[in-house]
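Bench notes, afternoon.
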Amino acid sequence: MIARATAVSCLVALSVAPSTGCNPYDRHQGEYLAGSVDPAKFPKDYLGQGGKGNKPGGGLFVPISASVKGAPVSYYMFGLSAAQAGAADPLDVATLAPAIGYVFDPPSATSAIPKQGKCAAPADYKFDPQRDAVHFDQQNNLFTDLPDDTGAYVPIIAQSTVTSGGEPCQDIKSEATLLSRKDVMVKSMAADPTIPMSMAQGIADTPPKFLAWPIIDPAARVLSPTDDPGNPPLDATQIQHWGFYQQYLLAYLDGGYIPTKPDAKMNLKFVAQNLYFPDTVTVTDMMGVKSAGPGAVGTNNDILDAARADAGYSPLCQVASYTPKMGANMLPILANDVAQIDMATVKSGNLIYCLQLQ
């Protein structure tokens, strides 16, 4: 996890005006930091609760309490875009065609550059939140797409592994620069000299790997399970990660890898896990009287198949409701394990992103 203590007010200033505020430029030529991405056209889900694109920093990303095999977990919910929800198969990889994301030195990557490690930090470097816009002892990952108001964005990247060769940390902030560098290794196709304005293009890993990395308002606050949404900390910027898009700083949540498998026709499909919510819960009126009322997904009573560390984990969830058993007091007895659910009462619903973060 990338820790970041820079004040939210600084990110707000950069989001509103990328060329002003908080000295966003580490240098004014070459691969300078151009500021923060502008969330003005981000869909609602990517702004957080109460967020507004034209007023960055007002949104909160609040975790939802759930359980897996009786143990508590939490997740962050995102709905499907219009394009994905309207697809004949919203889990078809080819239909969604996720944009490439450049991932520096992922755990599974093996370096082909002998006797050289990851990026090189300045001598005796120590991060200073008052001085540094980014950590200069690590390299942020690169993105090639942003959320927008067209309904086409999917919060998934197709991983393209970048193997570091001792390049200066944070010296690469754009795809164009990455593909021109000689001190890193990344698969790419050269520009076609017969096509005007042709540019080099990155190539996704083979076999393909996909990550649920939704890009969010960089000035929004992401709460932890122990934070109080009614009194959120002013600097809730320790959970999100930081990357670059064409030299602009962005924030994203790391939902982990999405499992895939081919169908009977060998078309590659994303695999979702199941998420169950009770269709009936206990509600308390203003007089303190309890009664049975309707349940809903995302109201802290959900049950998932798998936790982040489990083999069956997926940041995509197929939502389904179940009817809980009723107690002698005619109030529902909620389950906290899939094994406790009467599957005869289950009704399948929609698909969502259900990110458990690390």
